[in-house]
């Protein structure tokens, strides 16, 4: 049975979701279609990649992941199929894949399928699904794709370390009002390590440690944790953390590395 996940910026209740699913069921009978999220911010490649990166490994290898965001063939030129870690991903070459993978994938293919109309407005429905159907039926992409490279590599606001400060930002705020940042544990360990530090939130510096769980704190306590995806998350134990701490998408996060006092 083919498993296909959908991640988009369509918005809940959008008729595009129904149209996309209808086309999948028509062209790939028996497919199991799973919605990851349709609520990522419009045209926010980083946010969509973050959401998908945290869940795709939970699916069986061989699963197809359809990225329906900013898919204009005319604008982005390439529709890419990427095989990575036993999974298949299809989407426009619009920087979303740069955010999705920590390691640049080596199995990258460019679709040769052409839109029937140069003004094609719904390639995820009219092109992406044909490619997935071909692969599921034939077991390969022969005749419809060729080896390629990811060309769109512009990544804005990537975290960086400078002058003893690790600088990042909030990618999005989830339904529990926890702020998810683009600061990974790998980056934190590299630049901060076991040194003392302060996390500055809009000129506040209240947080000076990272916990392993929200449940270790009293209701209303502010908490910083590395979540299951390996990224810094800031919230409040059983409270509206992001709202009360003034955090929203694109809020700046500064982690200041302090000198160790060994006296």
Write structural notes for this entry.
- This protein has 263 residues and is of the alpha+beta class.
- The protein folds into two domains: 3-147, S-adenosyl-l-methionine hydroxide adenosyltransferase, N-terminal (Rossmann fold), CATH 3.40.50; 160-257, Bacterial fluorinating enzyme like (Elongation Factor Tu (Ef-tu), domain 3), CATH 2.40.30.90.
- Helix content is 22%, strand content 31%.
- The protein contains seven helices and 15 strands.
- The strands form two sheets. Strands 8, 9, 10, 11, 12, 13, 14 and 15 form an eight-stranded antiparallel β-sheet that branches. It has a seven-stranded mixed β-sheet with strand order 2-1-3-5-4-6-7, sandwiched between helices.
- Strand 8 (160-162) and strand 9 (165-173) form a beta hairpin.
- Helix 1 runs parallel beside helix 5.
- The longest helix is centred in the middle third of the chain and has 16 residues, at 123-138.
- The radius of gyration is 21 Å and the shape is elongated.
- The mean pLDDT is 91.
């Amino acid at each position: 049975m083919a498993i296909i996940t959908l991640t988009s910026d369509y918005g809940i209740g959008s008729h595009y979701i129904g149209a996309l699913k209808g086309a999948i069921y028509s062209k790939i009978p028996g497919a199991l279609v799973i919605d990851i999220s349709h609520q990522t911010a419009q045209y926010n490649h980083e946010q969509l990649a973050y959401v998908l990166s945290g869940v795709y490994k939970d699916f069986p290898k061989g699963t197809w992941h359809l990225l329906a965001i900013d898919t204009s063939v005319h604008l982005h030129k390439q529709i890419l199929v990427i095989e990575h870690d036993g999974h298949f991903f299809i989407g426009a070459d619009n920087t979303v894949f740069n955010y999705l993978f920590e390691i640049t994938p080596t199995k990258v293919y460019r679709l040769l399928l052409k839109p029937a109309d140069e003004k094609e407005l719904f390639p995820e429905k009219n092109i992406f699904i044909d490619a997935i159907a071909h692969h599921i039926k034939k077991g390969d992409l022969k005749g419809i794709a060729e080896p390629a490279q990811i060309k769109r590599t512009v990544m804005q606001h990537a975290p960086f370390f400078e002058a003893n400060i690790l600088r990042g930002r909030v990618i999005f705020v989830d339904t529990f009002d926890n702020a998810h940042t683009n600061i990974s544990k790998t980056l934190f360990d590299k630049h901060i390590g076991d040194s003392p530090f302060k996390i500055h939130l809009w000129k506040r510096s209240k947080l000076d440690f990272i916990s392993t769980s929200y449940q270790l704190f009293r209701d209303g306590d502010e908490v910083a944790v590395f979540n299951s995806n390996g990224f810094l998350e800031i919230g409040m134990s059983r409270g509206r953390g992001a709202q009360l701490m003034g955090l929203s998408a694109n809020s700046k996060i500064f982690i200041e590395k302090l000198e160790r006092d060994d006296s």
